[in-house]
UniProtKB/TrEMBL annotation:
The lineage of its organism: Eukaryota, Fungi, Dikarya, Ascomycota, Pezizomycotina. The keyword Transmembrane helix applies. The chain crosses the membrane at residues 341-365, 372-392, 398-416. This is DUF6594 domain-containing protein. Residues 44-53 have a biased composition (Basic and acidic residues).
Amino acid sequence: MARMAVADLEAAVAVEPRRPQRPPEAYARSSNKTEPVVLATIPENHEMSELRQRLQTGSPPAATAVEEDSSPETSPTLTPTSIAETRREAAENSGLLSIVKAMSYSLLTFVKSTSSPRLTPEEDQELNKSRGFDKLNYEKVDDYPEGYPQLAAFANSCDTFANVRRFGRLSYRLLAHLQNDLIDMEKVLDKLDKKDAADNTMEKRLRGYENYNGWDDEQRKLVSKISTAYSQYADIVLKDAGLRALGKCPPRNAKALFTWVWDEKPLAIGAGKSDFIFYPDDLVSLAGQSQHDRPFENFIESFLDSYPLPWIKRFLQHDTETCRKTDDEYVHLYSVDKLKIAANILEVSVAVILLLIPVFLLFLVPMGKPMMATIASLFVLLFSVVVSSLTGAKVQEVFFGSAAYAAVITMFLGNLNSNSSSTGTS
C-alpha cells in the first residue's frame, strides 16, 4: 500500500502543471510583433520542486539550514507524509482562524450597532426636551414652604417617614362610651318588649303593627337611637381594626421621623404642634412596614445606621432619587429593589449556614455518637427558632420545615455512620 501511494504521488508530481494563459491585454499593443511582454514570473513552489527532483534522481533531500547554528542531527527531513500533515494542519489552522475572525467581526458589528455614543449633558437635555420628559414634575422637599407643606412633602418622600399616630387610647375611649350607651339602650329595649308582651293592645307592636288605636312611637324612637349609636360604634371599631392591621411602626422609622422633625422644626415644638413624635409606641406605618414584616431589611438599615460602610451604602443608595427629593446630606434614601436584593442574599446565606455548619462539624470534627446526636438536636432547634422568628411562618409551616431539616441531618448521620463502619470492617 505504501508503494502504491508513492507511485500515485510520483505520477501526480510528474504531470506538468498547466500554466494559466495570459489575457490579450498582456501583449504590447504598440508593437507589431506578437511576442508577449512578460509582466511577472510565477515562482515555483520550493517544496514541490525539491520533491520532484528527489523522486526523479532517487537521492535524499539536501539539508537546508534554516538557521546558521542548526546541526544535521536537528534538521528535519522532508517526506511526503510530513508534507501532507503540514498542509492538513495549515488547512485546519486556516479554517479555525477564519471561524475566529468571523466570530470576532460579528461580535464587533453587534457591539457597534447596539452601543450608542455617550451624550453630553446639553445633548441629553435637548433629547429629553424633545421627548417631553422635561414636563415631568418631581416633588422636592426643599421646594415647599416650611411648616405643614414641608412636613407633608418629607413624609411622602419615603415610606420610612410615612408614620402617623393611631390614637389607640382615644379610639378605645370612644368605643367604651358608645359600648356602655348601647348596653343601656339595649336594657331599655328589653324592658319595653316585655311590657308590650304583657299588654294585649301593645302586643301587636311586637308583630309589626303600627298606627292603630293605642299605638305609640316609643319603640321606634328607641330603635332609631340605637341604630345611630351602633353605626358610630361599628365605624370606629372597623377603623381602629384597620389601623391596628397596619402594624406598629418600626423603632428605626419612628426615630428617623423624630430626628428630622426635631432638627428641621417644621412646626412649633414649643406650642405642642410636634408632640406626635413623642409617642413612638402609638405610631403606625402607612406603608405597612411593620417591625415583624421586614426583618432582614430592617436589620440591614439598622446595621448601616450603626456601622455606615461606604461601599454598601453606595450600592443601596439611589443617588438620583435622593437628589430629586431633598438636598439634606443627612437624609439617606435606599433603593427598594437593591435593598430587597441585599435582604434576599442575607436570607439565603442564613439558610445555607444553618444547613452546612452541622454537616461540616459532623464530618470534619471527630466525635462520639452521643455528641453527634446532641449537635444535630441543637441545630434542629436553632433552625425552628430562626424560621419562626424571622419569617413569621405559621405553626404548621415551622413544623414541616423542621421535619425536613431534621430528615436531612438524620440522613447525613446515617450515611456517615455507614461509611465509618465499612471503613472499620475493611
